[in-house]
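Annex B. Sample input.
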Amino acid sequence: MSENSTNESQTPLPIELVEAINNLKDFDDFARLDIYSALSEIFSLIPVRTYSTKTKVAKAPIKRGWTEACYTKKEFEAFDYISNNAGIACGLASGIIVLDVDNIKLFDQYIRNHHIDSAYTNTFTVKTGSGKPHYYFKYPKDQFTYGRYQEWGEISVCSGIKKQVVAFDILGCRSQVVAPGSIHPVTMQFYTIQDNLPIADAPEWVLDLCRKESFADSNARPSNSKGIEPDEVNYNIKPIYNDYETPDFEEDDGYEDSSPQRRFKDHFDDIVWWGFGKEIERATYPNEAFKNSNYLMFPKSRRSYMCFDLDYTDSASAWKACKLPEPTITIVNTHNGRSHIVYELTTPVYWPCEYNKTAILKKPVAYFKAIRFAYDQQLNADRSYNHSSIKNPFSNSWATTWVDKAYSLKELASFVNLPSIKEYFEATRSSIYAGRDPELFNIARKWGFLNVKKHFDINSFKQDMYAYLNKYNSDTIPLHWPDKGPMQNYVIHEKTKFVSEWIWPKRDDKRYGRVIKNFGVMGLQPIQKNISDDERSKLQKENKALGTKHTHKTKMFNNDSLILNAVDELMGKGMIISNRNLVKVTGLSKNTIRLRNDMIDSYFKSKQLQLSITK
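Annex B, continued. Sample output.
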């Protein structure tokens, strides 16, 4: 473990920070961001959810791959914590193990039964929003790894009925604990500092419970961990899992290597995101995901399948009525007859995402989208479906049919008439959206292109975009989608982060003007779909005329500014203000300069007058 990390985790929090945490009264994002920033210098912090209607999701990490923070500190990004809680990633990076008491009565009983003295309480302690303690201990610097341990016990619910509950958790590597300054999702009380004592050595009984294997006997952590010095350990290290999390690598599922079932499984990454319901909230090895989930998330970086959500009864055979090819997979909800039909692609299409957004070919993606658009229309599929997740075809909750067929994009395209570019983008440009998600994305994109030049750093750009989208989500989305209401806060956060980071590099692009030309810079009303061709043609001509006038005015203004700046530059260098010199500096034509000679003379005289007054 690095010396800095160890020393920081042993030192109590500064008095001013403790006072700031314990004096929190209101849900003040700015005050909490200051607190989280200070904590991030001591511990390895991650953003976690503040609220959720589902108990298991409340207090859960927001970002995928968050467990990496247990081994390596990440740079603190304030934007990630707006309206969110903070979590401390336990383990090597923070240098801590945390004893989390869930049921005080059962915990006290465990302490008595095992004859444990109260010395464990003499350490840095956080009081949770539910009034229970978190005891912080030093993460040992030895050859062992320390993971998570849960102790369960029985409580009486009512006469004759008992229930199993967690008595306490011990949180080590690959675990996180809600940080002080956060707010409890149920009690709405803040996590505060109960005892600002130095972080004590972990008691032996705590270590015995959460100790896993030694580095020498197991593959415990990806190499290059900052928590282990190279001269201490020389092993090929992989992530550690609790016994109940260990995947079965050798399980034989009975599928042949060439079967569509095997191809479907093999196309996933080493870690698969999945959920029991539509909310994708877990990440495990593939075998566990295929066994336990009802929904799976496709790999972000590529599309090996084209999936359609048919949100109506008896939809499994809709492809026949539409004279489309037979799907590779048909997944039916037997309760309501709704289905997913899925076409396997012979060649995957690599998709823009945070991992490879600059390293993809745009034409295959556009071709894929055009085919998907045409199939959506033919099948009357749900256009708000984002094609990133799918019903798990191996789940017993659905009836699944497999066919050993795969298609090229060209083969799929041969069954439909592909839309023109005009038709494809008409829905976006006319502000008629397929769902809340595409509406928010396009609103974010329009606002971003219009406002990116007004900002000098990406953080302020993100914050302003977040504020705009948050208000739009609260005020407008419920009006457009009264049966669904506003999107959850984490969706606004993710949209803001993705769109702002996508747009920001384009602000200095020389072709910026062309990039934003179709994003409502003139504020013209969209042309409605239900008007006649003559009316449409008339409106298009009027809009083109307005656009030409707008472009001319903008160009004139830009040229004027360019010329006046050139005059300043020449005067600063003591050079003659001549048409020839102005042409050289601005790159404009002689005729453009001549047409503005009166403006140049007037500006030059005013500058001379200013200089004479100054002298």
